[in-house]
Write a structure and sequence with these properties.
The chain is an alpha+beta fold. It has one domain: Nuclear Transport Factor 2, Chain: A (Roll), CATH 3.10.450. Helices cover 22% and strands 38% of the residues. The two termini are 33 Å apart.
Length: 133
């Protein structure tokens, strides 16, 4: 039986989230290429370069240190997708991040921050709440 190994991109994205968890965003930015781009399609914003990445994360208003829970990372040698829960103890969010690797560093990320919402009543008879599990 084959032993499944983690791809290069998955390893790099794991290291990225581990560094983010230290709240030392410059340390996390060391994993980014100099021409790094982060896209947030929901707000139509683009962040260019490790310095701006560091500033955006450092300046974001927080109630305490950010904590990151990696729910899942999948990928191959060039690309990975991560599902990460994030909280500062008051605010909570979930980020779905599509990452492209070039020369062992993160070159591009597209990140979605979906907002939770109440399920529609018309399908209550077909579903169960994930909160009850």
């Amino acid at each position: 039986m084959d032993k499944q190994t983690k791809s290069d991109a998955v390893h790099i994205v794991e290291a990225f989230w581990a560094r983010m968890a230290t709240n030392d965003f410059a340390h996390a930015a060391a994993l980014l290429t100099q021409d790094y781009v982060l896209d947030w399609p929901q707000t139509r914003e683009r962040i260019r370069g490790p310095a701006r990445f560091t500033a955006v994360n450092s300046e974001y208003p927080a109630n305490g240190p950010w904590r990151f829970t990696v729910n899942r990372i999948v990928g191959d040698d060039r690309e990975a997708v991560s599902d990460v829960s994030i909280t500062d103890g008051v605010q909570t969010a979930r980020a779905l991040t599509f990452t492209t690797i070039r020369d062992g560093k993160i070159a591009h990320q597209t990140e979605y921050w979906p907002e939770p919402y109440a399920p529609p009543e018309n399908r209550q008879h077909l579903v169960e709440s994930m909160d009850e599990q």
